[in-house]
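I'm curious: can you give me some protein's one-letter sequence along with its backbone structure tokens because I've never seen that pairing?
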Amino acid sequence: MNINSKHLNVKPGHLLSSMVVTMLLSGCTGIGKGMVEAMLEKSEAEDTRVCQVWGQPFTGISSGLGKQQGKTKLLFVHGVGDHLPGYTTQFMEKLAKQLDLNVRSETPKNITLNAPLVPDKELGNLRITQLLNEKDKRELIFYEWTWSNITRDQKALLAFDNSGDYEFRRARINSMLKKFSNDTGPDPIIYLGESREAILAGFAQSFCWMASGDWLDLPDSGSHTCTGLHDENIDHIAHDDYVFISHSLGSRITIDGMQRIAFLLANAEKFADSSQETELTRASIEALQNKRLPIYMLSNQLPMLQLGRKLPEVSGQAESYCSPASNRYHERLVNETTIVAFSDPNDLLSYGIPPGFKDKYLDSRLCAAVTNVNINIAKIIDAFGLSDLANPLEAHLGYDRDDRVVALIANGIGHPNALPLVEEKCEFVKTVK
């Protein structure tokens, strides 16, 4: 889940520390304030958090920024909890600094998404920002999709539970926890219901806008529909680099969205009429099939969110679709989907991707390859030797603020151009079949 810390009215990184200090100072009169402060100062000084990467080397976003032909385009998909446009600003600024992109468009573009298959319904806001390096003209176009408006009205059913009629009956901490539970808990349930089609249509529209043009081709504002990937988009599809970053439920949406596109490609004739679905021409399909699509999954939840779901339409057949020697190679979606799954063992809601998962539970036409990143986001506190504590909220929320995560996304690992921070803080183990 993607919990918004504003509901707790306290910085996530300080929540557990504040609770520990409060309990110790108010309830244990024999423990001096100086001892508590010393414990916390020690915790702050010693950064022993692990960062272990298992899988294949990857180069990150930076490798494509200096290309002579084509742009790099990034789409961010959030998880549960109510979000407003601009929620990626802190991450975007950290990433831009890491990539030395020192110029930004003065005003972001904001497109209200619509799709023919979901008429008369807004499918979220696509906020686009252009990032540039002033000297060498390297460019990153950053697309932020906010889909909260699709579920917001349904979640209003629980608003009474946060009202004055009920809130005063709860202890203060329980009240704060209940508020974020009411905000975040319903989204996975709603996604499994009637809103699923609208959310996936919103993803398809976001991908379509990302793939069909450059910064100057995009409308500045208003409600619009991307009608398809046509032959005039071939140069963009063939030469642009597409990158996805997702958080928690956003990773399930991204995978489902890509599998939905794979279904559309397999049934291109059925959906050739753009009044029925985003149009895909044969030339655009072939250009897409040659691409490598990296997906950086923050607080990965794919194993948990697979529970109770049917297997994909095509599974366990990677060799048939992804080997150039196979007679079904022409039916793949892309050349490779590179999944980099970040999970903190102290994040109660994230999981690594186990061996065999991609073969059984991901559509074979995605040609997926998986790299796991086991990383401590939250610092571990030694509470007087009684136990090791880590703030699970910070462990879940802090990925996009962590310098190591940003450095891995920017420059990757396992190759000579990896950043010194990654070389120093992260251990890389290359895996082979």
Summary: Residues 5-152+191-430 form one domain. The longest strand covers residues 125-132. The chain has a mean pLDDT of 84.
